[in-house]
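Hi R.,

Here's the input for the zinc ion complex you asked about:
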Amino acid sequence: MLARICAIVIAGSVVFAQPARRTVTLIVTGGTVVTMDAAGRVLTPGAVAIDGRDIVAVDAPEAVAGRFQARETIDATGQIVMPGLINTHTHAPMVLYRGLADDLALMEWLQKYIFPAEAKTVSPEFVRAGTRLAALEMIQSGTTTYADMYYFEEEIAQVTKDAGLRGVLGQTIIQFPVPDAKTPSEGLARADAFLKQFANDELIVPAVAPHAMYTLDTATLKAARALADRHRAPVLIHLSETADEGKTSREKYKVSPTQYLESIGFWGPRTLAAHGVWLSQADIQILARRKVGVSHNPESNMKLASGMAKVVAMRTAGIAVGLGTDGAASNNDLDMFEAMRQAAFLAKLQTNDPRAIPAKAALEMATIQGARALGMESRIGSLEAAKRADLIVVSMTSARQTPLYDPLSHLVYTTRGDDVKTTIVNGRVLMRDRKMQTLREADVLAEARTFASRVRAAVGK
Ligand SMILES: [Zn+2]
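And here is the predicted structure with zinc ion in place:
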């Protein structure tokens, strides 16, 4: 578009002034801008111009100031500006079970503590309170998009929207009776209604979340896939989290979980498999061919001693591997900076190669690769014009971050969620200088403590 030229008439003579600058809603300027774009551009310093929900320019501060004037400016001097983090696997309301039962294997943890606690405590009110607490923690630690699998997902979606976060939210379908559905067909009907309720939403991508191949029969898995196809919705599923799951699958179906799901026509694009710890090379090839994304959850996998996912092999095969925290009951927080650091460390330990997942790769997994894994890379995951304005400003001046030679190294190896100063989603500032704009922090914490007393009573703690 040609720049408009202002002609100003002064005392009878015409003076041509500077080209008129376009007025935009927000400019974040002066910080080191880590774009995570395909060229890996880092602008020192840089600026991001935002109009409404979209990024309109990412450039040097003078270049942005020459083209745009902002209604509001955020000075990011001495800080890093980067894409908001994308948590590809969590169960948001489970923050209310944080620290309830630790140091147990997955099946014992699930069957003795989590499933019984859920049966007694999960309700729409519980889910809303838990999601508010999770949203508070995510905004405070720089997550701007998250993928979720839980019950009463419509409540989660509403709280997520009110908090201003972006979510790929999956209504869970499971074979046994759960708090929001007595049967899998009831779960499917709930998922259908949820997909209709949040279709074409600006912040929420509604999804179908069949829990796992070991908690569902073949007919329900096929029905979940068909439902997602009818709505062109994403599918979220747990896959090969433990060695036991593989054993069960081989006993029942003679093949691995991935091969079984392939044999029933379950795999397809816009599908995200969480964990993928026990995948064979043949499984990895199937997922790559079917363009299935994978969420790697290193902290949960280590804490539950589930195993080590072959992240390098998956990335080499071309699979989009995102990073997740998993539910806070098995992590025990939603800090994606810690997830990045642990993903890098675990891969190094696993392969005896410190180059296995370098800082840049860990950052990619938490941003642009997470976006790819969710099929959203054209909208989020990097700071580029025409993408949605989902970004964070991260402080880089603490003792722990001094001196600063390499911003990418610092983001992965020394930064924590608490270092995030400002969080912006869809052009809206959700936290400014650590002050929450969309949630009342004290109220959210008080409400969570009230529900915790119900959890304590339910499990006799
Ligand atoms: Zn999970």
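One thing worth noting: Residues 180 and 461 are 25 Å apart (CA to CA).

Cheers,
M.
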